[in-house]
């Protein structure tokens, strides 16, 4: 597994995964390009044999007490291999490096595998946003991890580009 910072040249590969992973509510290429260019975030790429197979991003302003996992997505054939967990942990490390004490995320209520991963990684449900994901009318589960109560463990990467 190779995780590395995303660069603008990765946009096409990211959008391929974005559209396959989120067919009804994928971000636009312009939105994703803006995310990649923002100094307030960190996007990582997961490569396998030189091919981009996943990505994840966090919005974490330097010195802010909180951060938000924006997205994590993998090609379907690479799910269940621990890659999503590795991306999540690397994003948490990036948030911590920027000074965050809490990390938030939303997960679709119809994605129990992702919700289970987040619960296993010390996120807790703190609320719901009814019918948040459109056009599917799916609730968003709002989750939080307190990095003070649950600091990164020794087996989690200590740098964002681990």
What does this structure look like?
With 162 residues, this protein is α+β, with helices and mostly antiparallel strands. The chain is built from 4 helices and 7 strands. A 7-stranded mixed sheet has the order 1-2-3-4-5-7-6, with helices on both faces. β3 (51-59) and β4 form a beta hairpin. α1 (11-21) packs across α2 (29-37). The longest helix is centred in the middle third of the chain and has 15 residues, at 83-97. The protein is globular. Residues 157-162 have low confidence and may be disordered.
List the topology elements.
Layout: E1 2-5, H1 11-21, H2 29-37, E2 41-48, E3 51-59, E4 66-74, H3 83-97, E5 102-108, H4 112-120, E6 124-133, E7 138-146
Parallel strand pairs: 4-5
Antiparallel strand pairs: 1-2, 2-3, 3-4, 5-7, 6-7
Q: What is the overall shape? A: globular
**Fraction in beta strands:** 25-35%
Order of strands in the sheet with the most strands? Answer: 1-2-3-4-5-7-6
Structure summary, number of beta strands:
7
Task: Report helical residue fraction.
Answer: 25-40%
Total number of helices: 4
* Backbone CA Rg: 15 Å
What does the largest sheet look like? 7 strands, mixed
Overall pLDDT confidence: 92
Question: Strand pairing plus helix content: what structural class?
Answer: alpha+beta
Encode the helix/strand succession as letters.
EHHEEEHEHEE
Task: Give the low-confidence spans.
Answer: 157-162
Summary?
By secondary structure, this protein is an alpha+beta fold. Helices cover 27% and strands 35% of the residues.
What features would you highlight for this structure?
162 residues, alpha+beta, seven-stranded mixed β-sheet
